[in-house]
Amino acid sequence: MFSSLTKTATQIPNTPLSNYLIETLNLPKTQAQSISTQFSHKSLDNPHSVLHYFRSLGFSETDIRSAVGSVPKILFSNVDKTLKPKIDFFLEMGLVGSHLGKFISNNTAILTFSLSKKLIPRIENLKKILVNDKSNEELIKVISRCSWVLTTNPESRLLNNTAFLESCGIVGSQLSVLLKRQPSLFVLKESKLRDLVSRVSGMGFSLDSGMSLHALHTLSALSEESFERKFELFRSFGFTEDEFVEMFRRAPVLPRASEKKLKLGMKFFLNKIDLEKEALIKSPRCLMLSLEERVIPRYKVMQILKSKRLLKNDPSFINVLNISEKEFLRRFVSRFRNDAEELLVYYKGHLLDSLSSSPSKEESP
């Protein structure tokens, strides 16, 4: 009976607080009432101080609404003793203005953490990994991109995973690069991280190489099922498992491309222009290039040059794709003065053939 009475009492809305949140933050009535029931006997003095403080920092109304909506109890935090020391800590790191507001709105619970026992030690651990980051620019990117490294329980995971990666030969600047590229790796369960490293090593990557970092990033970003689907797609175009793995070693970012992009790319290279499969195995990055903006326009230009017999030599199309925009225009457009205008129309105008103008046909199996 007493528990029932207590439950009923705590569900009584704090009408002044509810009205205050509706009027000052434009919160929906249902949300404002729901928040007010959590603080049925609280006055408006503290919420007013908290909102005034956030606004003085330059937080947008949207960010303040988001922060209050996700962690309502911050309305009753002591500004001088609880909020200000933590906010000052992030300000000193370089998070200011709208960037600070956005970070806090997305990670409001961080303001409930102990500054000395949690935030400072966790930040210091990250700084030890991020070598040569004196301005804290990379640190800010990491915590903004993957707040898990601060908001979960990373002390043991971060330290253990860092030690494990170092034992694999990923040290110094490479460790720093990995943290910037895929910070979630550092808060994985150690068993999952060990499994990822084992898979990367099993595919022939040297763990102390830069390519292994890309591979770890890819395998951590894709589920095993998704990675398997990418392999099945390549197999449908005649690639063996060994050939797919070789392409992955040469371009570890390749499996992160969408299945649609990879499929259209292989149809163009293998079926449309009859490129040898071995050429794609040696240069798989070609499949990462934009068909509409780079591959097909350059192919069109090369076809025109060949039809007019303007080329003394027949350059490899793969090499043509890999040169810079400036170099391509110099070597294959501007130097042919009598034909430069026509070539530019095809190149810059993207007058694509039926491959791109009929996507439904091109995407059919």
TrEMBL record:
It comes from the Eukaryota. The keyword Transcription regulation applies. InterPro entries: MTERF (IPR003690), MTERF_sf (IPR038538). Pfam families: mTERF. Keywords: Transcription, Transcription regulation, Transcription termination, Transit peptide. Gene3D superfamilies: Transcription termination factor 3, mitochondrial. Belongs to the mTERF family. PANTHER family: CGI-12 PROTEIN-RELATED (PTHR13068), EMB|CAB62602.1 (PTHR13068:SF173). This is Uncharacterized protein. It comes from Xanthoceras sorbifolium.
